[in-house]
Design brief:
Shape of chain A: globular
Shape of chain B: globular
Oligomer: heterotetramer
Order of helices and strands of chain A: EHEHHEHHHEHEEEHEHEHHHH
Number of domains of chain B: 2
Number of domains of chain A: 2
Strand order of the largest sheet of chain B: 3-2-4-5-7-6-12
CATH superfamily of the largest domain in chain A: Thiamin diphosphate (ThDP)-binding fold, Pyr/PP domains
CATH class of the largest domain in chain A: Alpha Beta
CATH topology of the largest domain in chain B: Rossmann fold
Strand content of chain A: 5-15%
Structural class of chain A: alpha/beta
CATH topology of the largest domain in chain A: Rossmann fold
CATH class of the largest domain in chain B: Alpha Beta
Radius of gyration of chain B: 19 Å
Largest interface: B-C, 50 and 49 residues
Number of strands of chain B: 14
Strand content of chain B: 15-25%
Number of helices of chain A: 13
Radius of gyration of chain A: 22 Å
Strand order of the largest sheet of chain A: 3-4-5-9-8
Number of helices of chain B: 12
Largest sheet of chain A: 5 strands, parallel
Largest sheet of chain B: 7 strands, mixed
Structural class of chain B: alpha/beta
Helix content of chain B: 25-40%
Order of helices and strands of chain B: EHEHEHEHHEHEHEEEEHEEHEHEHH
Number of strands of chain A: 9
Bound molecules: thiamine diphosphate, magnesium ion
């Protein structure tokens, strides 16, 4: 039997393996990583900020001020580690569970909260929940239909290639999202055209209540790259240094014209799917406990302390500083006025056609009448 | 008779149909252990097992494509789309196959399946958890499109849909899921497809509506009655295609005025067909203009959704317009 | 001025726009060496190279999804769907993204792209090479929908579409591709979006139509003129959304009678909106019923397509109905 | 680096290899195949019939009697070999390029021609071109949008499993079709649910003008199964015995509950994509010449002759017998009346709703008027 001589491109070992720098307790598994101290501390700080902000969004949802939130807890390392590999001019196509990625790109807590609370300063003008983005940071706001953004990241990468820009695009998506057509088509185009894109799969084991083994019979997510000629790398997604390392490699490959990479970051969603979910219906507590032990902040803190880059006291100070700063931001944002009703009819087209101009009149008349009738609609 | 909300009524409909007919299976994202995100399929997996209550991978195209294959083979699948806003990945399967296989096969094959899904706004769901895309389905020959507004109708219509030999798009207005409760028979009954329900009798103007807008329309009807003494008839269409033209015409023979209320955007929306149907076939019945009160021609917004959706003020304005023409 | 058919005019429009603006790229199945199955993109790959004329893998979802990403980044992609009947796999990308990104991003991002595709019947293309799905797009807020009926308009409208900052669905009635020839300027010009074209002046009845149905309508107009002496005005809508309501209303002020002719199926079709718009805003202009002559509410058939599509007899019948009311 | 211990399921060697029984000249590559003589002769006869019928459909299209035809020439072995592995009660979901598969299932030339010419006996009542099917033979007529039928085959297979029927479904599709979402979702469902389905990919190197390397960067089509936990087998698609052998294995696996298989049958379309295509625009003549040498009928004839199962004379007789029979059928079918116009409005629903009843009146009125006007519309 003649066998095609191209097994090398399959990258099978890396796609079936699990790359790690730290073990679950924060001990280096194969020698000390050689990254600058500041970068290591930044990684941790971003994760801390994401964790605190995540908690606030949860609280604000319970207070009825945020429509819905998709908790990030436990997945901070994948978002932060991967995004840190990007340059300022690169583009990010996130999903709805990457607060840390937004922070790394430079988005502020205030901008994120404006968005979540649809205040007058909401950069996305109240369009949808759980999505974030900002042109200023080259972050395209995520579509809620999962995986939709994957071909966009590929298209933007190809556009950059066509225009001769040496930028890279990166997109995040979950394990469940790999079942969608968008994943298939995005990876396929990227493979065929060698698009400078990095696919970051956050394999958090669940798509709401559907476990990974019901999602795919593939041995790993990373190996799916084989179907597209896209190298796959499986990495411990709770090890921020490991994620950063493989992301750097992927970003450099992309930037140097060698094409796309599929990174599977193996992680776990410690919280509910969203604030509307009740995970006790479908998963056992022990599983959560087990992954809590492996969660990324604990691990990184232990490592930083053991390496002497952080003391227990400094860590406490870091947390309380950010807790205070973010709380102050929350208070400030809570006091902002809401978006004006007219936003409902704006930004459908560059210029509103006649139907929207008429509907703007209808909207304004209806608001006047509602006031007259004494009806509260919010 | 037990009092139920729509979720309970739908759950019972599924349970009864699955018990009655072993060909009925349920599939979709999170319909198993999770019982669906709104719990419409709660408990079914315990009663009927994993072979008949199937948690699927996350792909609407797959859910519908696979359900079509099941229906071709002889099952009667009830496929859940978690929110109708996510149905578009399956649009090719719906338009090219679910709707066309009977025609394509010269009547040799059929696709007796139900696509059921929560639809419409009113729960702060934002752009992709609030849509009312019924017009797309109504425009697609080969499909039946249904939207109940009450628990009683929900149960009876779902059962009729499952027994239909034609594919049915069954849309559930999620804002009504738990807010409306009524007596629902604990036994088998169906509500026929293609028949509207007269919700409120009146003589001056007819509102044709469906889903959650039935309740907004009733409020507006009360308001104009109080303020102006106008008597408003409200018709709940229930089946959107083929819609009950006789019920509309009968009402117009009495009222001679027509207001159509729906959440879907206006342009080429479902109301356009009803208005066009009347303007084409019964213009002589009309005293003046037809009015449409609809979702605006924008994506569904997160902020100010109640201003986006038809509300008492906008329906009132329309009633006034047609009454004072 | 050179005489061209629509394929040549479209080809020239693409060529000129690509030369004028390096951001314009073409992508789709077989658009490269093959020049597209109708040769609309013929020769472009030789002139502009593989980076700007891109043969894609066989997936409409990918073509549109990737084109959206390109447009986000700053290109002006013209994505070809080989036949519009295959667009449905891309429907999620179209409805959820192409149409909504401007809104979703509060105006920060836009998607200046064109989806162009041969549409409509008349070449014995059968069920999946003949459809007229414009209603789906017209109902989707955020999109502009265009269909030229002549080579001149095709060139000018395509150029205007490529320059539009909003996403455009550009539908090309393939039965007209090579059958109609006219003088087309060899230089740059655009035909504005949103403006109808008065094809034939008349005073008794207005036909609103577009695409290949312009020619059927003209034949029927001639026939009733000869047989009955009725004077028929024919309006080619050209842009289906936002449509030129002023042109329609102006004509109705004169004729007071309206017939709408389109190939798309009737129920919740594009004609429903035009009829509803008039019934809602200008009913006082009408002397009698509006009539719609449309594709039947079935999948598009291979056998007897000319009986399925509006033809001279069916348009004649409708004109007679509204004239003799 | 820890590596997942499941490399076995990847079946990499079979998915990257090329299984063959005969070489390009019809010589057994590894011993005499042990199949019954009758079966070997049947394989050849079905291919001959398919080849002749294909030629007729081409001619009938040029005569304007068939709207469009997708030539099969060169691909007969894949369709015939794979379908012969099915039992009567199994279900077939073909594409538009498998005349041989229809014949193997028992469909007659007359039924196929009735379909292609939309005569009064057209079992599909004039609905579309290039598609064939019949309930009598458990053949579901193909959708023209490519790959659509893949999830249907999976759904039918799952339905059979749920109902306890021991049947297998088989579906055909081209290399281009693997780029579509339907392929992705169909394979994924099949893998997750171990559906008794056999996927037969006819990799004929082209999707109209798009060559395989522009379709996917995957080293083979068969290897794509890895992404779904579905074993892939790559086979010489012009070797009917080889195709039959791997299809038998796949069908048996499916029937015994072991799940799906993806077969890549490597073949070549010798003719144009359809009667509307002009392949000289995009491919070079040498390539076609090369594949003509490898075409399946020549190869099988040589083998049968060398094995003594067929003489040159018998072969001539076989061809002329089928040429005669099929020509007679063509003549017969050409004389049949067309479908009545009413079919346009039938079979949309089980019972026509009011709009279709009204449109039937409109149709009949318009036909009367057209006659009166003397307008010919066909
Ligand atoms: C197309 C689509 N279908 C369904 C949903 C509803 N939904 C939201 S998130 C989700 C699960 C996503 O799982 P995964 O991709 O693993 O991401 P995770 O939530 O685990 O981060 C589902 C089904 C959706 N948003 N989009
Ligand atoms: C969804 C869809 N898009 C486009 C087409 C037009 N088209 C018909 S066949 C074809 C190529 C199919 O290639 P492949 O799957 O390799 O099958 P082959 O024709 O080579 O047998 C295309 C693009 C189609 N039929 N369906
Ligand atoms: Mg997940
Ligand atoms: Mg091919």
């Amino acid at each position: 039997m003649e066998v095609l001589g191209r097994r090398d491109i399959l990258n099978i070992d890396r796609a079936l393996g699990l790359y790690r720098v730290l073990d679950e307790d924060g001990n280096p598994v194969a020698g000390e990583p050689s990254l600058p101290d500041k970068l290591l501390l930044d990684m941790y700080t971003y994760m801390v900020r994401a964790r605190i902000l995540d908690g606030w969004l949860l609280k604000l949802q319970r207070m009825g001020r945020v429509a819905l939130h998709a908790p990030n807890k436990g997945q901070e390392a994948a978002a932060v580690g991967a995004t840190l590999a990007l340059k300022r001019e690169d583009w990010l196509f996130p999903s709805y569970r990457e607060l840390g990625a937004l922070l790394v790109r430079g988005m502020t807590e205030e901008e994120i909260l404006d968005r979540a609370l649809t205040t007058i300063d909401d950069p996305l003008k109240g369009s949808d929940f759980a999505i974030y983005g900002h042109r200023k940071y080259n972050i395209v706001p995520a579509p809620v239909p999962v995986a939709n953004q994957i071909p966009h990241a590929v298209g933007a990468a190809l556009a950059a290639k066509i225009m001769g820009d040496k930028i890279v695009t990166m997109t995040f998506f979950g394990d469940g999202s790999t079942s969608r057509g968008d994943f298939h088509t995005g990876l396929n185009f990227a493979g065929v055209f060698k698009a400078p894109v990095v696919f970051v799969n956050q394999n958090n084991q669940w798509a709401i209540s559907v476990p990974l083994k019901r999602q795919t019979a593939s041995p790993t997510i990373a190996i799916k790259g084989v179907a597209y000629g896209v190298p796959g790398i499986r990495v411990d997604g709770n090890d921020v240094i490991a994620v950063y390392t493989v992301a750097m490699e992927a970003v450099e490959r992309a930037r140097s014209g060698e094409g796309p990479t599929l990174i599977e970051a193996v992680t776990y969603r410690l919280g509910p799917h969203t604030t509307a979910d009740d995970p006790t219906r479908y998963r056992v507590e022990e599983e959560v406990r087990e992954w809590e032990r492996k969660e990324p902040l604990r691990r990184m803190r232990r490592y930083l302390i053991s390496r002497g880059l952080l003391t227990e006291e400094e860590d406490k100070a870091l947390w309380s500083e950010w807790e205070k700063r973010i709380e102050e931001t929350v208070v400030k944002v809570l006091e902002k006025p809401p978006l004006p009703p007219e936003v409902v009819l704006e930004d459908v087209y560059e210029e509103p056609p006649w139907n929207l101009r008429e509907q703007m009149r209808e909207l304004r008349d209806s608001i006047r009448l509602l006031k007259e009738l004494g009806v509260e609609l919010e | 008779m037990p009092v139920m909300n729509m979720v309970q009524a739908l759950n019972q409909a599924l349970r009864e149909e699955m018990a009655r007919d072993p060909r009925v299976v349920v599939l979709g994202e999170d319909v198993g252990r999770r019982g669906g995100v709104f719990l419409v399929t709660e408990g079914l997996i315990d009663e009927f097992g994993e072979m008949r209550v199937i948690d699927t991978p996350l792909t609407e195209m797959g859910i519908i494509g696979v359900a079509i294959g099941m229906a071709l083979y002889g099952l009667r699948p009830v496929a859940e789309i978690q929110f109708i806003d996510f149905v578009y990945e399956a649009f090719d399967q719906i338009v090219s196959n679910m709707a066309k296989i009977r025609y394509r096969s010269g009547g040799m094959y059929s696709v007796p399946m139900v696509l059921r899904s929560p639809c419409c706004g009113g729960i702060r769901g934002g752009m992709h958890h609030s849509q009312s895309p019924e017009a797309y389905f109504m425009h697609t020959a080969g499909l039946i499109t249904v939207m109940p507004s009450t628990p009683y109708d929900a149960k009876g219509l779902l059962k009729a849909s499952i027994r239909s030999n034609d594919p049915v798009i069954f849309l559930e207005p999620k804002s009504v899921y738990r807010t409306i409760k009524e007596e629902v028979p604990d036994r088998d009954y169906t509500v026929p497809l293609g028949k509207a329900r007269l919700v409120r009798e009146g003589s001056d103007v007819t509102i044709v509506t469906w889903g959650a807008m039935v309740y907004q329309s009733l409020e507006a009807a009360k308001l104009v009655e109080e303020r102006h003494g106008w008597s408003v008839e409200v018709i709940d269409l229930r089946t959107l295609f083929p819609f009950d033209r006789d019920a509309i015409v009968e009402s117009l023979e009495k009222t001679e005025r027509l207001v159509i209320v729906h959440e879907a955007p206006k342009t080429v929306g479902p109301g356009a067909e009803i208005a066009a149907y009347i303007a084409e076939n019964h213009i002589e019945l009309l005293r003046g203009p037809i009015a449409r009160v609809t979702g605006f021609d924008t994506p569904f917004p997160l902020a100010h959704e109640k201003l986006y959706m038809p509300n008492i003020a906008r329906i009132y304005m329309a009633l006034k317009k047609v009454m004072q023409y």
